[in-house]
Amino acid sequence: MRAARLTGWRAPLEMVDLPGPDPDRDGVVLKVLACGVCRSDWHVWTGADPVDLPHVPGHEYCGEVIAVGGDVRGWKVGDRVIAPFILACGRCADCAAGHQTICAGQVLPGFTAPGAFAEEIAVPHADANLTALPDAVAPDLAAALGCRVTTAWQALTGRAALRPGEWLAIFGGGGVGTAALLLGRALGARVVVVDVVPEKLHYARELGADAVVDASACDSAQAVRDATGGGAHMAIEALGIDATTRAAIRSLRKLGRMVQIGMPAGPHVEMRLPMDAVYSGQLAIYGTRGMPAWRYPSLLSLIEGGQVDLTPLITRRIALSDVTRELAAFDTPAPPGVAVVTDFLN
């Protein structure tokens, strides 16, 4: 199979031919139909989230089942499916309680296992993790769901319970921020997007943001408080950066909620947070990472029913050989939208 393999930090991914994987007893092998290029892949590429080399990254994928392990009961060859990037064991106490994203036996394709920058990928624990992909959802969109959209959906509905009429402040107008904007509006919230890239702010306006804030030109937290008449009810930090996390907290009104979606890495693993604002405002801070498979149907139903159009997320459909260029773009403020690999032969 054709694959893009990482052999050194920040090195161009090598286009190689590798043996196709075999399914585990409880797993399947997918022909990858599409795979997104995400900032989390950039953390792997730079070594900020180190993996054993050589390694095939890629964790936002959908595919068609082409091989099935002997213990799999729910899936057959030919099924079109999607899977979360956190593959839970399906058997432990956390999984039984519905908390698959904290499963101690989890497998992470693209991180702890070979990923989906390849023509094929092995998915363990298939019955616990796969969800049928509706015909109405195109593969490129399904791939974008795998991390950014599902993480935003979990943050908005599974963690901090966004309510209609509330103000949602999004710090970072990249893929997950754009997903949160579209989903937040579908849930009836008013949305303000904060970024430093004029093109992203313009794009957010085009997608229906009620307000935008250029953080390079002002105190972004104060600007959000001004735009929302006293502060956001809920804020999302979508970059994993010290400065935006602090600003997200300070942008909240009293009793507000902040969700840390951005992955802190490198110098941002430890942050200096404004705990005076947390204390005096009686704020809540949530962490979130991925979304369990059992929550996919609610999101897919929203899409199938036409309540939200997520297609504006996809702004670039690329070949596998273009992945390095997209990863390098995360070194600087990346262009609006999401890049998805749809051509695995070039």
From TrEMBL:
Q: Which InterPro entries match?
A: ADH-like_C, ADH-like_N, ADH_Zn_CS, ER, GroES-like_sf, NAD(P)-bd_dom_sf, Zn_alcohol_dh
Domain of life, per UniProt, equals: Bacteria
| Cofactors required | Zn(2+)
Keyword NADP appears in the UniProt entry: no
Query: Which ranges of the sequence are coiled-coil?
Result: none
Keywords (alphabetical) are: Metal-binding, Oxidoreductase, Zinc
Whether Oxidoreductase counts among this entry's keywords is yes
Q: Which PROSITE patterns match?
A: ADH_ZINC
Q: Where is the Enoyl reductase (ER) domain?
A: 8-341
Pfam families tied to this protein: ADH_N, ADH_zinc_N
According to its UniProt record, which protein family does this protein belong to? Belongs to the zinc-containing alcohol dehydrogenase family.
Q: What is this protein called?
A: Alcohol dehydrogenase catalytic domain-containing protein
The species this protein belongs to is Sedimentitalea xiamensis
